[in-house]
Specification:
mainly alpha; 88 residues
């Protein structure tokens, strides 16, 4: 997941790798279209990272609900006598 977020950061900070005019794409120098290309690529990589994080959160939530974290016994979500945060 971290690599998905790190790749655009490194690719765009390493200016020496794309600080040139050729090859041109529809008349646009490489320096510009390379950076523009990273906009949709970064979007896709961020979406992949989001999906991976959400999947891991769901897996951990399912493990907690099954009681895997508490030695096989389900953990109570609220303390005894707790009215869900409503005080009287």
């Amino acid at each position: 997941m971290g690599l998905c977020l790190l790749a655009p950061f490194v690719a765009l900070l390493w200016v020496g790798s794309y600080a040139r005019t050729g090859p041109r794409f529809i008349g646009i120098p490489f320096f510009y279209w390379y950076q523009i290309l990273w906009v949709p690529v970064s979007t896709v990589l961020t979406a992949i990272a989001y999906v991976l994080v959400r999947r891991e959160e769901r897996r951990r939530g399912a493990a907690r609900a099954a009681g895997a974290d508490s030695g096989g016994r389900p953990r109570p979500d609220r303390g005894e006598g707790d009215e869900g945060g409503v005080s009287r």
